[in-house]
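Priority: medium. Attachment 1 of 2:
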């Protein structure tokens, strides 16, 4: 450009125009390069975002499953503990079998027991079978009466066939005792 026929002020204006055009082309190329770079990174970004969401969902599900299993474990332990506490509770202390047998022995009179078996029918009823020897029919009937009077709701099933003899009676009676 030094050997042009243009006057100096117009050459300066022309150079300035070339520099401006060079800058415009440079900025266009940079913006195009940035646009292509962003466009080429977009699929990778989307893939990473999808994987992040999947891992987050998996972690959430895993934590929820862990919490559910821990919660079930805690609940089962709590149920066991509550059952244990209820059985140890003084308010609902069940009658001890030894105390019930001791009560039977105290009201037996002349009767001799050879076997006693007990079965819990419900939370408030105990079925007992007593076998033994009664010296007289009256002593057996007295035991039946004393047992029924001891607590309302007590029942004695004394077969009539056992009352046929008047002395040395082998007996087997069924008792239904209400628990306190």
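Attachment 2 of 2:
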């Amino acid at each position: 450009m030094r050997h042009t026929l243009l006057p100096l002020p117009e050459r300066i204006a022309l150079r300035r125009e070339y520099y401006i055009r060079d800058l415009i082309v440079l900025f266009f190329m940079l913006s195009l390069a940035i646009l292509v770079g962003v466009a080429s990174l977009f699929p990778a970004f989307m893939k990473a975002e999808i994987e992040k969401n999947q891992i987050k969902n998996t972690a959430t599900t895993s934590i929820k499953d862990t919490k559910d299993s821990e919660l079930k474990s805690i609940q089962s332990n709590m149920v066991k503990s509550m059952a244990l506490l209820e059985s140890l509770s003084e308010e609902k202390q069940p009658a001890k079998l030894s105390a019930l047998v001791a009560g039977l022995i105290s009201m037996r009179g002349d009767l001799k027991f050879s076997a006693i078996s007990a079965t819990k029918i419900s939370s408030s009823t105990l079925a007992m079978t007593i076998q033994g020897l009664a010296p007289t029919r009256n002593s057996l009937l007295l035991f039946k009466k004393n047992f029924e009077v001891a607590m309302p709701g007590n029942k004695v099933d004394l077969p009539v066939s056992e009352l046929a003899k008047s002395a040395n009676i082998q007996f087997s009676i069924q008792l239904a005792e209400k628990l306190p």
